[in-house]
Model the fold of this input.
Amino acid sequence: MKIHEYQARDLFRAYGIPVPDGAVCHTVDEVRALVPDDNQLRVIKAQVHAGGRGKAGGVKLARSKADAIENASKILGMDIKGYTVEKVLVANAVDISKEFYVGLINDRNTKSVTLMASAEGGVEIEEVAKVSPEKIIKLSINPVAGLMDWQAREIAFKLFTDIKHVRAATDILKKLYKLYIETDSTLAEINPLVITEQGEVMAIDGKMNFDDNALFRQDDILAMREVTEDEQKEIDANEKGLSYIKLDGSIGCMVNGAGLAMATMDMIKLYGGEPANFLDIGGSSNPQKVIDAMNILLGDTNVKAVMINIFGGITRCDDVARGLIIALEQIKTDIPIVVRLSGTNAKEGLEMLKATGLPTVSTMSEAAQKAIELSK
Amino acid sequence: MKIHEYQARDLFRAYGIPVPDGAVCHTVDEVRALVPDDNQLRVIKAQVHAGGRGKAGGVKLARSKADAIENASKILGMDIKGYTVEKVLVANAVDISKEFYVGLINDRNTKSVTLMASAEGGVEIEEVAKVSPEKIIKLSINPVAGLMDWQAREIAFKLFTDIKHVRAATDILKKLYKLYIETDSTLAEINPLVITEQGEVMAIDGKMNFDDNALFRQDDILAMREVTEDEQKEIDANEKGLSYIKLDGSIGCMVNGAGLAMATMDMIKLYGGEPANFLDIGGSSNPQKVIDAMNILLGDTNVKAVMINIFGGITRCDDVARGLIIALEQIKTDIPIVVRLSGTNAKEGLEMLKATGLPTVSTMSEAAQKAIELSK
Amino acid sequence: MSILINKETKLIVQGITGRDGAFHAGKMKAYGTHVVGGVSPGKGGQHIDGVPIFNTVKEAREATDANASVIFVPAPFAADAILEASFAGIELVIAITEGVPQQDMIRVMPFIKQNGTKLIGPNCPGLITPGECLIGILPGNIFLQGNIGLMSRSGTLTYEVVNLLTENGLGQTTCVGIGGDPVAGLYYQDLLQMFEDDPKTDAVVLIGEIGGDAEEQAAKFIKEKMTKPVVAFIAGQTAPPGKRMGHAGAIISSGSGTAEEKIKAFGDAGVPVAKEPSQIPGLIKSKLGL
Amino acid sequence: MSILINKETKLIVQGITGRDGAFHAGKMKAYGTHVVGGVSPGKGGQHIDGVPIFNTVKEAREATDANASVIFVPAPFAADAILEASFAGIELVIAITEGVPQQDMIRVMPFIKQNGTKLIGPNCPGLITPGECLIGILPGNIFLQGNIGLMSRSGTLTYEVVNLLTENGLGQTTCVGIGGDPVAGLYYQDLLQMFEDDPKTDAVVLIGEIGGDAEEQAAKFIKEKMTKPVVAFIAGQTAPPGKRMGHAGAIISSGSGTAEEKIKAFGDAGVPVAKEPSQIPGLIKSKLGL
Done:
């Protein structure tokens, strides 16, 4: 689960990590009410779940109240990579003396939380990682000891020279780790972490992701969740035991198992089609899941053909066939559907489907080719 | 640092460990206001920092409001082992089906927190430990893993048979451990932990001690501290860098170092005297400490003679002599003082003391014998 | 021969009285696996389908001498169940449960390492040595005894591939589903080493997915240490770039994680990568000179 | 010969710029100890009294090849300082700091064990191999090179005893103050074993205190493992029964902790217990047949 920059800022502040003063606004009126008529330089930042908002014009400086109002009115409602900007963060701009990067992530290889830090902070950190990986300091954190004070200080000494900055950064790293662990985070970045001209160490921009599997024990984080229409579909699907991600193609697919679903999408592309979605109905044999899945698939107006690919293991093919028959009785559709059933009770399932007149094939490749052909 | 039973109860409740309803009262009027005129059986318990209050009559049952008032008035003001009862806990009595013991303690040998549990709970647990140590289950807790759920459950299964009780006890053990760690406790006991006739698992009486060295980070615990007059003297002494414990004898002693101070007390007893105190002035050479120490010693009206025993290491004997001379100028006293200085700058110190006319000796044994002789 | 499990394996089922645990305990027994006990706190002393139930893993292990445990307990309690098995001295733990919080698994790792426990999963379908022992939720009927080792991050895709192997007469020594979670037990390298050391295994099929760099690490390992042929397949070659990873994701994997990079890594290690699952049997046969 | 420290020991001082750290660094240097560096975050690159200062223990160790560290940092940060030294690969860590929270020490223990670090203290005066190396706050002038090993839970009482030994011509191999805290590093047994193994040590003096059962454990160890004579003294024989321990205290130490029990335990182990410190030299001499 992702949150907005302003929400990450709120968490930082709650854990004592210094951030510039600021607040989120949903309307131009709120900006007008918030910003006093002073000479403070401010920055107005679009709050959307999309990268590259700076290049898209979603980040603007404001030298006056009038400026702030004007820029906020430009940014609010703007479209960034398909996301409409509904909120802006209005924050005091600070005089930056130097930019740094610090981040925490769950690392598959070390099976631990890894702390990363670099004196080359700012937007180009990914470029730094590629070109000069030696400039990224990495530390694998022992989960039972946690981030020890001396470790945080050792990292801070690699970034800063002035002991005042070292102490401030040590403190920030410890607090970021605490925040990370206590919220079941999977990614927490401060980029840039800066030294201001006044000598303060501060988090200017932040990003946090959270473990969906741990949301059951993270009510405060869950309360921050904001979803787009597409994401809502994915969440609804999830609640029905389905894993669904909408894509832009025209071949809807329904598969059991994530790996097989991905392989199915690959197959569609391999034969020149474009998948309309990723849809995994999971391992159960409940016909209702098939009905729900078909409803989702056929509700997508981009879908021109549907490919059903089931390998029966725990899932029984006759159950899938049964669900499909009920679904097709409920949802009358003209969209062509190709069915491939293999494995447990495939024979029975295929027998049941005969009455529906749906085209059935025996391999994944055939199914993909047939679906593409029918979609044209 | 110790707290009262009612304070331990409050901590238990804050951590979700079930305790019977109740409240602390400082006066009979408070009891009158608290207890409704019903048929609830209640128990009135003296809240003093002394053991054996049951035998001393400090715990009484009350079958009615009038009963509660009468018994509270008997207990309030009562003297238990030199402590005046200033508070009573008034709590609902429960129908106990079976009593258990659980406790956590910092264990020197395993250098970890040890969980102890026994199906033989109640006041005689120390007897159980001596006579049937096999009835006490012990578990050394890995400090980095903490008390794992399965461990708490394994212990609970050794005490209880009904899965309802096992689950409740598992939960209580986990909460007690959390409380223990989060408050820098050195001892946390529930004795007895009971199953009520109604099938509930509950903490009936509890005891907690805390690490004095950790009070700097335990404001909430520190706020619970209540001290007697004697303890206040010890705390005042502590703030002056002295370690002082008042005893009942007549030979005051001032020593540098806790081990040497204990050995000095032993020596006094060995030669037939009784030490009036334990007093360690620590390792510094600050003459002010000597002045403060002498003020404490000579402020105790039981003291008939003073033995000063200094082995100069880091402490310099001339500094001690200097402090002593200033102290004796400030506090005019007729109480005889024997001085033994040895080690660093002992010669210089003894030379300085010549003018005071104080008797000086060269060994601990002589000092003890001389002080006893002078006290008569 | 085989790796990890065989005819001698004695299995207990943690969460045996739950819906999934009970169902699959029955399936495993039916396949021939020695299901010697189950654990379900509070049900100790009872039996399910002839299998004795215990309150704790320790009791179960002491009574049955089990050396493997499969975990079906719900996600919030799965990490604790793994620890219980590990501290009870169970050598091989297979966690089927999906949805286990990542921090829980991170905290488990140092202890299972310290105790010398081998962990597979969580969020995995289990493993099978065909004809000898099945642990988990794999459909036993599609497997065939033989000389191919298989490891996979996915479930049904594995069955798809195994079915193709079996249809082509390519039986398996052991097939292991390592699970799809970011923080998991045995990885490709661990299993590759075991297959390399297993005299019965002649070739290995590796089924990977996009994301992370487990496949790149495996490719490196194969290049440096493996003498036996390996054939790979990567699912998600055409999936849109991962929506969930920020800067740090790119940094930590040093730019890897895409299908292209994985395919390139395998290419460098001399490992042919199938374009679609149906090519796998052919690639294996040509590697084995069949 | 000696135990733990000698002429070759290279010491760094953590907290060297603090009042106590600076003072005792000077004292130790004056005694002849190789004080090769100090650690004080933010003062790296400076010197104090000719000793180079570093920001971290790691830097100090890399630059100086130190194998011992003495800790003078304030109590709230002492446990972290121990960990920093341990993870930097320092073999012997002496924590002088008093007032360290017990839970901090409990959390430190598994890591120093895992790293193979020897810890003395906290709340201890340090140790000395007379004529070779002094680490801590002991007054060097009272010690004499010789063949007696000494270990103690107390500070000045140790000096009292050492002074008596020295005055009686009984020099020392190494004297170790193990500290008075409930949760501490090396205990009597560890040191007894080292003295037993040290060819130069002919007899050992053990100075104990009431409370806990470290002395009982030591007596047991002596009975079972020691061939060299040991003489003991217990301080606090007449102290009023410990005010601080509840039921659990009595349970955990199985009824022990009093001076009587300790004296009895030593008696059972054939260890004479001095009634007052001045008897110790005589007891040692008679044991050594002098």
User: Anything to note?
Assistant: The mean pLDDT of chain A is 90. The two ends of chain A are 37 Å apart (CA to CA). The longest helix of chain A spans residues 163-182.
